[in-house]
Amino acid sequence: MNQNQPKIKIISSGKYTPEMVISNEDLEKLVDTSNEWIVSRTGILRRRKAVNENTSDMAYQAAMHAINRVHYDKSKIDLIIMATITGDQMTPSTANFVQAKLGLDHEVMSFDINAACTGFVYGLEIASALLQTNRFRAALVIGGEILTKIVDYTDRNTCVLFGDGAGAMIIEPSDDQNDTAYFFNAAKGDMNDSLTVKKFIEMDGKKVYQFAVSAMEQAIHKILNESQLTIDDIDMVIPHQANERIIQSVAKSTGIPISKFMMNLSEYGNTSAASIPLTISEYYDQNETKGKKILLVGFGGGFTWGSAILKL
Ligand code: ACO
Q1: Which atom of ligand 1 is nearest the CA belonging to 240?
Q2: Which residues participate in catalysis according to the annotation?
Q3: 27 Cα: distance to centroid of ligand 1 (angstroms)
């Protein structure tokens, strides 16, 4: 076992999704598709669309949900990491906008990262490592996207898949060995043409699908191995919410019961970096989470992929 894995206290989790809903029936009016095709190939029923709000607005709302859930003293937050591929603008970073919206005018280090749909798992690993320096009291890690602004609504191959949302988590450093968190993150730049965003999202769906299944399977085995835990020690697997069939294939190939995979993609579609934290927040909404162990696993453009095991 690697003794250098960080120790972190998970304080809270929050989410925000915009009000406007785009149903499969709405998409039938835009492109040559059908509710039946979308449901059977992806499991998605509807997704949300941000109107008159920016990524930082949604990220702020998700952060406030996490803060209010536990009545957290937000002045303790001195590190903000925002995972997004759809930030408000090139600079300032979306994390800086969130800092301002939260009214955190003390010394805060805040910045954005881009690891596509794996961005939140990357962000958590970076935050956890920085917290070990004891320079920071608390980190706010957010994944937030307005993917509907980079979706081509004339391309049926992609426009049915994506939606908007944000999720956030607050973490603090810990000295307790029981709070050890485990991370694995990786990238494969030589497959970068399979999923790209220049103006709009373009992808080779089949290639992405095949990569996703094998990468998630590997990332699950890797993190269980690293932590010397078995799947029986894990209360819930929280995967990136891209496609129900991808998750079913991973369940089959790893032998993990599908009931152990939390899914909400039918409601939100694929929200990229937001999908894992948004799902974690819903896990908090539905369960007594204290002491529970969750396994996060994601993949995304780049290609990137990663996993983590956290004790809540
Ligand atoms: N409605 C109707 N027909 C469609 C649609 C649609 N929305 N989209 C594609 N089709 C058609 C295709 O044109 C094709 O027609 P053809 O046989 O006449 O050429 C047919 O359906 C079958 O297409 P396939 O690509 O074989 O369909 P598949 O079963 O592979 O499902 C899908 C496509 C859903 C895109 C799947 O490949 C997939 O989920 N891939 C992974 C995508 C993904 O997760 N991307 C994001 C990951 S990273 C990130 O989150 C940014």
Answers
A1: 50
A2: 117, 240, 270
A3: 15
**Kind and range of the H or E run holding 276:** helix 275-286
Class of the CATH-defined domain 1-312: alpha beta
- CA distances 118 to 90, 123, 228, 304, Å, are 20, 9, 23, 6
3-state helix, strand, coil in the chain (%, to 5): 40, 25, 30
For the segment 181-217, what is each residue's pLDDT rounded down to a tens digit? Answer: 999 999 998 876 788 999 999 999 899 999 999 999 9
Q: Which atom of ligand 1 is nearest to the CA of 270?
A: 50
Q: Is the CB of 160 within 6 Å of ligand 1? A: yes
As a whole number of angstroms, the distance between CA 118 and CA 101 comes to 25
How many angstroms separate the Cα of 102 from the Cα of each of 67, 73, 78, 308?
A: 10, 12, 12, 28
| Cα-to-centroid distance, 304 and ligand 1 (Å) | 20
Alpha helices in 171-229 (DSSP H): 205-227
* Distance from residue 161's CA to the centre of ligand 1 (Å): 9
Each residue's pLDDT tens digit, 19-38: 999 999 999 999 999 999 99
